[in-house]
């Protein structure tokens, strides 16, 4: 049965269940951060001493004073109940990559048949969720259930609304009873502190005032697909795995390049507006929305925030996109590669460092060749990426991201840095001893007086680079669209802290030896760039020539699959690095490696079993039924020809399914890393063979017999 008309009719009628969006003026003046307990809100609800104590923790990094907890908890409860909240939850980020929450009511019986609303400082600071059912990588056994959530005062509490009420969400860290991190937030917070401790002494050498604190800033773009909800539920592969395990290529994909930045369909635009209004209320600074390259693909992008808050907001963005899409008869797909043959989805992490006074340390200014502070920190990033290519690759490693990475979507199997012509020339001239600026910006004339001359940047952009300098920040383009950004940010903070620490020691030695600051920095930048310039590449990252040059001439790592990368997480150099900056202990690091193997294995295992199920119970029966209809139609030449094609492809599919079934059953060993390698080396190739045969059948089986919505329907029915 063809459901195209039904889906189109539903699309035309979506407005009946949609929530009307707020007036744009109201969004700006009244809605933004209205469901966030901001510092300004707290200032009006706390005594001056309590507020100053909390402010010292948030702005100067002083240890949180537990004695203020009861006062803050009362203010938090009062504010939340004014917003309609009846429950609160410690909202945390376990090692699943998602978020977790356990709701408790504010209601407390008072013993005389009545109840009061209560929320204590003890309940604010710490809660005890069951830690046994979260991944721990061996840190905790199933029978050792105790774990703790701890209030993260650096990320503001917020209200999450649902159809019948609201819940106060308190961002927290999550640790085991033995004190080891069981979440992604704790190491992220540790890495922010490590970055501050590394960069502040360097800034002092450049004359920064005492008390200057440094953190990392981040804006993470989010790509996603939208498809009709009916099509989603008729595809067991999408429901179970988030991606299509079958699907012949339609005659048209993204070849015409007409979707990118095209007019946004009305239903999609209304969905976006609704989702953005919810994000505004949560203080998420979303700025940009547009059609992406692939048909049915879109992007939303916030601007800079403190990286810890940005990580929280990214989790909320994914949740809001998924929840809101359903109101419009749509499903938001966040898988890195939901459709073969068209671009997948990433999460580009725009990263920089900033002081508590708002100074961006990667801002080159108008004269970057004279900005020694900028050149110092920029060279530290170059050194960091070269020294720790493996960690950056590991930070984005997953079974789902492997389908995207290495294709025409910023391939990071080989890490490289794009600096652009202006910066590259500045560093090259410094290395050669010439100095000076080199390429300069100017005005771009467009050949007609109707159009104004445009300011022209001194350097171009490079969309093929996995790690690109984009004006005043670095864009790490390799993160997957469905993953938490906490670990990639943790790694970026950590490796830059390491590089800055080493360069600061070298710079201090030069200054102690009598060198002036400018000449000492120039010498240090020159030697650092000379040692690490192999990582800088401004050309086409998609080309085969680059892969040959990078691996064989420059000696860069080429970790083609996630498993190639994950095995290096616990290399001695990485254990020493995480231990040196107290970001992850050896046990915590080993646990994360174990979890990455386990998630890889389970992801592909689910895909393999889903592929077998769909082929056996949906696709083969459809082919057999169609063959029966063909045989009943007579023995004409056309009938025989079509029946032969269907029969041949069906036999091929049957044989491929038998092979896949055996590989699914084999599992590959007792240890999780053995199972993961079995999935990569045997199950994934067997799945591909099943898909090839099934996609052949899709092209020859009559449409009314085909049991699955096709790419043509899913990608183009809006």
Automatic annotation (TrEMBL):
Superkingdom field: Bacteria
Keyword Ligase: yes
Stretches assigned to the GS catalytic domain: 184-619
SUPFAM superfamilies: Glutamine synthetase/guanido kinase
GO biological processes: glutamine biosynthetic process
GO molecular function: glutamine synthetase activity
UniProt domain GS beta-grasp: residue ranges: 86-179
Entries under Pfam families matching the protein: Gln-synt_C, Gln-synt_C-ter, GSIII_N
InterPro entries: Gln-synt_C, Gln_synt_N, Gln_synth/guanido_kin_cat_dom, Gln_synth_cat_dom, Gln_synth_gly_rich_site, GS_Type-3, GSIII_N
Keywords linked to the UniProt accession: Ligase
Transmembrane segments: none
The EC number(s) this enzyme carries: 6.3.1.2
Family stated for the protein in its record: Belongs to the glutamine synthetase family.
Name of the featured protein: Glutamine synthetase
Organism of this sequence: Deinococcus metalli
Higher taxonomy: Bacteria, Thermotogati, Deinococcota, Deinococci, Deinococcales
